Amino acid sequence: MVKRDQVVILGVPVDNVTEEEALAKIEAFIENGRPHQVVTVNPEFVMAAQSDANFFQVLKEADLSLPDGVGLLWAARFLGAPLSQRLAGVDTVRRIASLTAERGYRLFLLGAAEGVAEATAMGLEEENPGLKVVGTYAGSPDRKEEEEIIEMIRAARPHLLLVAYGAPQQDLWIHRHLGRLEVPVAMGVGGAFDFISGKAQRAPGWMQRLGLEWLHRLLHEPWRWRRMLALPKFVWLVLTSSR
Ligand code: UDP
């Protein structure tokens, strides 16, 4: 196996890949055919992992960990091992859809509120003529629904499964079922369907460039403030960890 170029931030490994390299890896996973888990790590993930051993383990075992969030880029630079670029989940989903259309792969969209996965599929199909979305389903990460959802996915035989149940539920869900899903690539995508379907507004370009996407999210979804306290705690832990 090729050694992975990774940066470890507070114990959580993150792959140092460009968007092109990430897509090449995803394609290689599909060609290989065995099940692979992709995670998009941001500072909230790293902080959640500090107090959730199960989630920590899932992040350590992931086959590809994409750096999502300027906080991670800052931390990596501070720790002396800079990451090449930030890969926002929503951009990665769009690039995956275009790869899927080009190669004739099958895509399944699971999660988000009722109707959002369908609207996301329509948006992605419009952007990528020929894209094959073989299934969309809201469902929930509730254990009672697991068997039904697994059956649905197995019957649709996708190459790629994108799961939008929010972190850490989506990543734990994938990890629990990866062996049975018969899907070569499964990835947790957080709120990506909400943005692609137009249910939520993404920050304007200038805010993204200044690394202020988190502020835009906080202004539009103020109930997030408590969860977002993870960010200053993350900064503090990184600053003190290297002493
Ligand atoms: N979500 C869901 N079922 C759940 C919890 C969340 O479908 O039980 C969806 C929610 O509708 C949203 C997505 O998970 O589309 C991501 O949620 P959030 O934005 O909180 O996740 P984050 O991006 O912060 O990980």
Brief summary of the model shown:
By secondary structure, the chain is α/β, with parallel strands linked by helices.
SSE topology:
Layout: E1 6-9, E2 12-15, H1 19-32, E3 36-41, H2 43-50, H3 53-61, E4 64-67, H4 70-78, H5 89-103, E5 106-111, H6 116-127, E6 132-137, H7 146-156, E7 160-164, H8 169-181, E8 185-188, H9 192-196, H10 205-209, H11 213-220, H12 225-228, H13 230-241
Parallel strand pairs: 3-4, 3-8, 5-6, 5-7, 7-8
Antiparallel strand pairs: 1-2
The structure holds uridine-5'-diphosphate (UDP).
The site of uridine-5'-diphosphate has 13 residues, from helix 9.
The CATH class assignment of the largest domain is: Alpha Beta
Count the domains: 2
List bound small molecules. uridine-5'-diphosphate
Taking all Cα atoms into account, the compactness measure Rg is 17 Å
Mean residue pLDDT: 95
Give an account of the 3D structure.
By secondary structure, the chain is α/β, with parallel strands linked by helices. The chain has two domains: 6-197, Rossmann fold (3-Layer(aba) Sandwich); 205-241, no CATH class. It contains 13 helices and eight strands. It has helices at 19-32, 43-50, 53-61, 70-78, 89-103, 116-127, 146-156, 169-181, 192-196, 205-209, 213-220, 225-228, 230-241; strands at residues 6-9, 12-15, 36-41, 64-67, 106-111, 132-137, 160-164, 185-188. The strands form two sheets. It has a six-stranded parallel beta sheet, sandwiched between helices. Strands 1-2 form a two-stranded antiparallel sheet. The protein is globular, with a radius of gyration of 17 Å. Bound molecules: uridine-5'-diphosphate. The site of uridine-5'-diphosphate has 13 residues, from helix 9.
